[in-house]
From TrEMBL:
Gene3D superfamilies: Jelly Rolls. PANTHER family: GERMIN-LIKE PROTEIN SUBFAMILY 3 MEMBER 3. This is Germin-like protein. SUPFAM superfamilies: RmlC-like cupins. Residues 60-210 form the Cupin type-1 domain. Belongs to the germin family. It comes from Abeliophyllum distichum. Transmembrane segments: none annotated. GO terms for cellular component: apoplast. Disulfide bonds join 31-46. The lineage of its organism: Eukaryota, Viridiplantae, Streptophyta, Embryophyta, Tracheophyta. It is found in: Secreted, Extracellular space, Apoplast. Mn(2+) binds at residues 108, 110, 115, 156. Oxalate binds at residues 105, 110, 115. It comes from the Eukaryota.
Length: 216
């Protein structure tokens, strides 16, 4: 009946506006994270606004190169709500990424953020892969000053393809973007995912999975 369709439409419309894909808007000027609070909320509880200071909205040290002496040859220095309490409820954060020559930032995803990255120094091959069933690899080589965006949730990576070190700065659309590094999550979970599951998923011999699991 037409009346039912109208009623259904009104109900559907009223639900539309509660389905947020991104972080909710703040309900006050700011909500500086109170790391000492034991309150369980979505985000972190607010400090008393009367007791906040400029330092709550500030972070120092992003001029310092990260230590890239590790297996992948890169280092991410995060500035999220953990390092900068004033980011709480604001839906934004940033990172510095240093790359040694041939270094990579291995395939990973941010479950809660889109990332926009600019190359400050050097040259980076970057890419992301679209979801099933296409799994299209969108990739490009960036030079100093170039900007690239990694859409929320998609697996992405960077590789230093220049002669020297490379440096990037990126902004992310969450106070707490989260990182899932594919190799670590799949082969380094605690406890392990059963190796016969991974052998079937990756279509390889179980001994290859065992070897990968010892590395992560
Ligand atoms: C960088 O990390 C490596 C490996 O953990 C360590 O041996 C080295 O001392 C670090 N270098 C600096 C300058 O901290």
């Amino acid at each position: 009946m037409a009346k039912n369709i109208i009623l259904f439409s009104i109900i559907a419309l009223s639900f539309c506006c509660f389905a947020y894909a991104f972080e909710p808007s703040p309900l006050q000027d700011f909500c500086v994270a109170d790391a000492t609070s034991s309150a369980r909320v979505n985000g972190v509880a607010c400090k008393n606004p009367m007791s906040v200071s400029a330092n709550d909205f500030s972070f120092s040290g992003l001029h310092l190169p990260g230590n890239t002496s590790n297996a992948v040859g890169s280092r991410v220095t995060p500035v999220t709500v953990v390092q900068l309490p004033g980011l709480n409820t604001l839906g934004i954060s940033m990172v510095r990424i240093d790359y040694a020559p041939t270094g990579i930032n291995p395939p990973h995803t941010h479950p809660r953020a889109t990332e926009i990255l600019t190359v400050v120094d050097g040259s980076l091959e970057v890419g992301f892969v679209t979801s099933n069933p296409d799994n299209k690899h969108i990739t490009k080589v960036l030079q100093k000053g170039d900007v690239f965006v990694f859409p929320v949730g998609l697996v992405h990576f960077q590789r230093n393809v220049g002669k020297g070190n490379a440096l990037a700065i990126a902004a992310l659309s969450s106070q707490n973007p989260g990182v899932i590094t594919i190799a670590n999550a799949v082969f380094g979970s605690k406890p392990d995912i059963a190796s016969d599951i991974l052998a079937k998923a990756f279509q390889v011999d179980k001994s290859i999975v065992d070897q990968l699991q010892t590395k992560f």
